[in-house]
Amino acid sequence: MKKSMFFCAVMLAVLMVSCKQEQATQATSFDKYTIADDKNWVEVTDTMSIDIDCLDGDKMNDLKQFIFRNQAEYSTLDTLRVDEIFKNCVSYENPEVDFENYSLIGLLTRTGFCEIKLNVYRNDAVKKIYYVVDITNTGTEEILITNYNMLRVPPIQSDYTIVMDTIMRYRYQ
Predict the structure, then answer these.
(1) Quick one: pLDDT at residue 59?
(2) Helix, strand, coil percent content, the chain, rounded in steps of 5
């Protein structure tokens, strides 16, 4: 009996020493088409689309991505307002955002008539946020519609890198 207990203790010790814990991967590369299935990335689901109106696309210049972590940053949108030609924009105020509990991100796109899905993924091991705007064009119209794709998300710390990208799909009817 003593030999059996000694043998079991030795086997248990061997098992404990030989088993390695898996380390969280530090992989920094990802594929926007398969990121939803990548175990290193977690989809952020506490999101809400925010409509921002009265912005002048001509004033955007090269500004295509928006990251607002506080009210001061968010207030910079006021410099991008359309001229006073549009009466409803004269007194327009940005929607309120609770920056104590959220950040706001956006990615400017110009497309025809389309369906848009907004997805955010987070990888805490590499401190990255990936925001993908998945666009399915549904027609052949030659009209360009400007979308700012603003999304309220849980607070994004300043030491996180934010990557924004689009996926374009075409479905003609």
Answers:
(1) 74
(2) 20, 35, 45
